[in-house]
Amino acid sequence: MTITEMLGQSALLTLLGMCVVFSFIIILILCMKLLHAVIHALKLDKEPEVKATQSSAPATKGDDGAIIAAIAAAVHEKALK
Predict the structure, then answer these.
(1) What per-residue confidence (pLDDT) applies to 12?
(2) At a CB cut-off of 8 Å and minimum separation 6, what does 45 contact?
């Protein structure tokens, strides 16, 4: 087997491998689109409503003491290590 024949076979094998990979990617994309269509048709694509457990209001002046205490405790713990 000459170098030219081996290079020809390697190019053919490379092309075949790339075709297999790209065909699998195309099949995967088609399956995902089909799954999306089925889920949308069955109306399963709506997310459940999540109620907020805590308000997103900014901290008030009364919370400053608690924040300072938490920071002080964290610094104290870090200093002990």
Answers:
(1) 97
(2) 39
- Is the CB of residue 69 less than 8 Å from the CB of residue 75? no
Residue 76 in tokens: 């104290």
C-beta separation of 59 from 67 below 8 A: yes
User: Which letter, b or e, does each residue of 2-28 get, where b requires 16 or more Cβ atoms within 10 Å of its Cβ?
Assistant: eeeeeeeeeeeeeeeeeeeeeeeeeee
Tens digit of pLDDT at every position of the chain (81 positions): 899 999 999 999 999 999 999 999 999 999 999 999 999 999 888 877 767 666 555 556 667 888 888 899 999 988 887
Q: Which two tokens stand for residue 47?
A: 């997310």
* Cα angle: 36, vertex 42, 43; to 5 degrees: 85
Residues 24 and 33: their CA atoms lie apart, in Å, by 14
